[in-house]
């Protein structure tokens, strides 16, 4: 069975995006972009929801640095609002239950899987026990006035075991964990 990594970029206060801010909050830096280009999983299939698909396909078409590597990657887009054919190459529209589709895909895929953004999709996959890694890159901004898409709202309690950390460009922090969804908080 192939592993699934849930990937998020977030502000320090836990938002996935913010109105008026550029991609990566304008802080992508050469070390971070270099890391993205060197990721061994950059050719692994990507799972995303409709909103992320819309945003990322526009960023890629607009030449946003670091996004062009997604053109050749297989993308599975979970949506009831998008229509076929999807305009971004190598994109497959999935209208069936995401949890069941990903469970089957983990068994059948030749490569590990990863997500891109997609807050509610990732929450569903984590709750279903399908997430093997949980990776965040925390950017040093607080977007309390303009932030949107609070990443962790609606999540269950989750214990995280840190397996990797790194600082990019003396400002952004990579944190990679093995997640364990808890039935209840541990008794103290």
UniProtKB/TrEMBL annotation:
Gene3D superfamilies: Dihydrofolate Reductase, subunit A. It comes from the Bacteria. SUPFAM superfamilies: Dihydrofolate reductase-like. Residues 4-172 form the Bacterial bifunctional deaminase-reductase C-terminal domain. GO terms for biological process: riboflavin biosynthetic process. GO terms for molecular function: 5-amino-6-(5-phosphoribosylamino)uracil reductase activity. This is Deaminase.
